[in-house]
Specification:
About 65% of the residues lie in helices and about 0% in strands. It is built from 32 helices and no strands.
């Protein structure tokens, strides 16, 4: 009777579990399942139901604990999908992959999860194959989601692996498909096309969400945040940093729940700020440290964020923090250039240039594949220190670059600056030999020979230049320009040889150029300027045509001669010199008192001035001195000195000025 009662209670509980499961009330269903397990603790079905209820309630860790506790009952064949899904949601991606691969039977559910796991592991080729197989062998209501995932894989390949995406023939009927297509175009560098796709995605998103009456405008803006973020990124790539920054800040104000999106936007703002607006960058960097960011972004995105953190620490003079971050990055990616470049930059900021060069040299020795870029940086540091010759030696040690035209030009310029012409010519010679051996018909080869010849001529190496020009002429005997250069060079060394070579020049008849003179004169770039006075009207042109072409003689102006000119007298040869500089000048006659008036410093007088001063006579009363007579002021007098004394009419003048000002003033004080 007791057993029958227990069986009846279990049946009632199972019916309760079934009813709650259909209604989606998994919390209540879990309570009933626990009661069943109290009756029968190893009931496989009850354990499975408990795991499902926990998963539905988001308790992935507890669900995985139940599976691992009952491994004897819940074998991998029974519970493989649930276990792998819990591991996937707990970001134990490698464990989830092992669980899926160990399952004896690969169900459609496991294949779907397998594709998600491969995407998270960034194994895009395998992921693409998995989704193609799923789309080919399944027909249900989830086909659109599988196509969306497939397009996301293609976009990731284009963005992170720079793989040219193939046309999958997917109809872009949803905004998710449009968005993924835009991401793929960004990876290819087709920014304008990508922007159009994003605009279409925004339109489709608004249409689809507006059909639901429960969705508010805020919900739509939150859903559009990721599309707007990608639009801002395109603006940033196009150099429209102000527009990009404005859109980034608008998204941040919406406070989206996607921590990955916020981290990417914050990082992009930091890259726009660079070494400016550092306070804002320090605030934004906090968004990149949010919990769960590492599970939302790809490895390259996370790496870029860490690089920018190290650079920000350098810009904010946090030397220890910068060294710590760059060292951590170097340990994670030993072959990556940026960590060692950041360390070298930090050392340079600390004026330790020699140590920075040593650090770069060690990295170049350890990683020869990346030596070229490192050596370019080393050369730049040497130039900054003023060691141009050492910089040239470093540049010439880069085997894969030293024959390039840009490198040759840089080296020749630097050696010329140091007045080391022999080394500059040696650079030309080595580059020409390389092209002669590997690319003899390359236009760069001929261009280098010509440049070398011009350089040698400029620096007086005529014979060497002639040798280069002869080599050029042999390769193309019809090149008149080279022949002309060769003749010009020989004319400096061997004029007879120049005459012989000049016979090879084409005759003037064969060199007649078909030039439309009128068109050339009327062109916008013509330097010919017609004088307005020389323009003739139609009537004058007709008159002149009748009279014939008669050149007008310019009338010579008669030279004006001096009034006292005597043709019999020889002109003074020193007439163009100033009087004081002529040989017969004897100076002015002395003794005239009038010549001394006004001479000397201000206030001084001549010896006889007191005799001429009427105020000094006995009959005249004492008066204040005149503005020019300092001698009238005694040592004990308290009269204002003449040069500071106000003129007699000064007060009246001042009053007049004040009256004028009052009369013309319109405003108050």
């Amino acid at each position: 009777a007791a057993a029958a009662g227990g069986a009846g209670a279990a049946a009632a509980l199972w019916s309760e579990v079934n009813r709650c499961g259909q209604n989606g009330d998994f919390a209540r269903a879990l309570k009933s399942v626990n009661k069943i397990l109290q009756i029968s603790k190893d009931d496989v079905t009850a354990l499975q139901c408990k795991v499902v209820c926990l998963i539905q309630n988001g308790n992935f860790k507890e669900a995985l604990g139940v599976i691992n506790t009952h491994t004897k009952v819940l074998t991998s064949d029974i519970i493989a999908f649930e276990k792998a899904y819990c591991e996937y949601r707990l970001n134990r991606i490698e464990n989830a992959l092992k669980t899926i691969q160990s399952a004896s039977q690969q169900t459609d559910k496991l294949k779907e999860l397998y594709g998600q796991v491969l995407y998270r592991l960034e194994r895009y080729d395998d992921c693409l194959a998995a989704y193609r197989d799923l789309i080919r062998n399944s027909q249900d209501e989830y086909e659109e989601e599988r196509k969306t995932n497939l397009s996301a894989v293609v976009a990731a390949q284009s963005t992170w692996e720079k793989v040219m995406p193939e046309d999958l023939g997917l109809r872009e009927a949803t905004y998710e498909l449009c968005y993924n297509s835009a991401c793929a175009l960004i990876g290819q560098g087709k920014l304008n096309e990508a922007m159009k796709k994003l605009q279409k995605a925004e339109e489709l998103c608004r249409q689809s969400l507006s059909e639901d009456s429960d969705v508010t405008e805020e919900d739509i803006e939150a859903e559009l945040a990721i599309i707007h973020g990608q639009m801002a990124y395109i603006m940033q790539l196009q150099g429209r940093t102000e527009d990009a920054l404005q859109l980034y800040n608008q998204i941040i104000k919406l406070k989206p729940t996607d921590v990955g999106l916020l981290a990417v936007i914050a990082n992009n703002i930091i890259t726009i700020n660079k070494d400016q607006n550092v306070f804002d960058s320090k605030k934004k960097v906090k968004l990149t440290n949010a919990e769960g960011v590492e599970h939302k972004l790809s490895k390259k995105q996370l790496q870029a964020i860490e690089f920018n953190k190290a650079l920000l620490a350098m810009y904010t003079n946090q030397a220890d923090q910068c060294r710590k971050l760059s060292a951590s990055l170097q340990s994670q990616s030993p072959e990556h250039l940026l960590p060692v470049l950041i360390q070298a930059a930090q050392l340079c900021r600390e004026k330790q240039h020699a140590k920075a060069v040593g650090l770069l040299q060690d990295f170049a020795d350890q990683h020869p594949a990346n030596a070229a870029e490192i050596k370019l940086t080393m050369a730049q540091l040497k130039i900054a220190q003023g060691s141009v010759t050492k910089a040239c030696m470093i540049l010439r040690s880069i085997e894969e670059l030293r024959h390039k035209p840009g490198m040759v030009s840089a080296l020749v310029t630097m050696y010329s600056h140091e007045e080391d012409i022999d080394s500059a010519i040696e650079v030309f010679t080595q580059a020409i030999q390389w092209y002669q051996q590997f690319q003899p018909k390359s236009p760069v080869h001929l261009s280098l020979i010509r440049e070398a010849a011009n350089f040698k001529l400029k620096h007086g190496r005529k014979k060497e230049a002639i040798s280069d020009l002869e080599e050029l002429w042999k390769q193309n005997p019809k090149d008149v320009h080279t022949l002309a250069q060769l003749i010009s060079a020989y004319s400096l060394v061997d004029p007879e040889k120049a005459k012989v070579l000049s016979k090879h020049l084409p005759s003037s008849d064969t060199m007649s150029l078909k030039v439309d003179v009128d068109a050339l004169e009327n062109s916008h770039g013509a330097t010919y300027v017609r004088k307005k006075a020389g323009k003739l009207t139609g009537d004058n042109q007709q008159k002149e045509q009748g009279q014939g072409d008669v050149k007008k003689k310019k009338k010579k102006k008669k030279r004006k001669l001096p009034k006292n000119y005597d043709p019999k007298v020889t002109p003074d040869p020193e007439r163009w010199l100033p009087m004081r500089e002529r040989s017969y000048y004897r100076g002015r006659k002395k003794g005239k008192k009038k010549d001394q008036v006004g001479k000397g410093t201000q206030g001084s007088t001549t010896a006889g001035s007191s005799e001429l001063d009427a105020s000094r006579t006995a009959s005249s009363p004492p008066t204040s001195p005149r503005p020019g007579s300092a001698a009238a002021v005694s040592a004990t007098s308290n009269v204002i000195p003449p040069r500071h004394q106000k003129p007699a009419g000064a007060p009246a003048t001042k009053k007049k000025q004040q009256q004028k000002k009052k009369k013309g003033a319109k405003g108050g004080w």
